[in-house]
Amino acid sequence: MKVMNIIHDSVVDGDGLRTVIFFAGCPHFCEGCHNPASWNIRNGTEMTVDQVVEEVATNPLTDVTLSGGEPFFQAEEVAQVARRLKELGKHIWAYSGYTLEQLQHSEDKAKRKLLSYCDVLVDGPFVLAKRDLTLKFRGSSNQRVIDLNRLEVNAY
């Protein structure tokens, strides 16, 4: 799979201390995107599932955030990563330009499988006209922070 970067000890990409995996490739092309270099999957570095999991495991104190780009763009491999991270006891957040409903009803089984490993989903495309710097863990007011274990939209 193609990975842009893995950073440790983030406090802005989800609740608590997190390791963030930025995946390459994104079909949404949101105007004002904070990471437009990630749109092109060729900009990423090829990594195996084992390599990604091993890098995350070097920091046992953090939970994990899947970001991008679009983590559901490479859903089959990212789902394998997420499964392995859940086995390590990691709490997983995912940022996606897709809505929860689009992922739940996707014909792509890998997208639904990846979603099943996530604890929290920040969904919806970034909309520049709805940008709001006061929002916690999201960039625009159309995006939702959803506790998938309770299927509640959190107002943060």
UniProtKB/TrEMBL annotation:
It catalyses: glycyl-[protein] + reduced [flavodoxin] + S-adenosyl-L-methionine = glycin-2-yl radical-[protein] + semiquinone [flavodoxin] + 5'-deoxyadenosine + L-methionine + H(+). It comes from the Bacteria. It holds the Pfam family Fer4_12. Keywords: 4Fe-4S, Iron, Iron-sulfur, Metal-binding, Oxidoreductase, S-adenosyl-L-methionine. Its cofactor is [4Fe-4S] cluster. GO terms for molecular function: 4 iron, 4 sulfur cluster binding; [formate-C-acetyltransferase]-activating enzyme activity; metal ion binding; ribonucleoside-diphosphate reductase activity, thioredoxin disulfide as acceptor. Residues 12-156 form the Radical SAM core domain. PANTHER family: ANAEROBIC RIBONUCLEOSIDE-TRIPHOSPHATE REDUCTASE-ACTIVATING PROTEIN, PYRUVATE FORMATE-LYASE-ACTIVATING ENZYME. Belongs to the organic radical-activating enzymes family. NCBIfam families: NrdG. This is Anaerobic ribonucleoside-triphosphate reductase-activating protein.
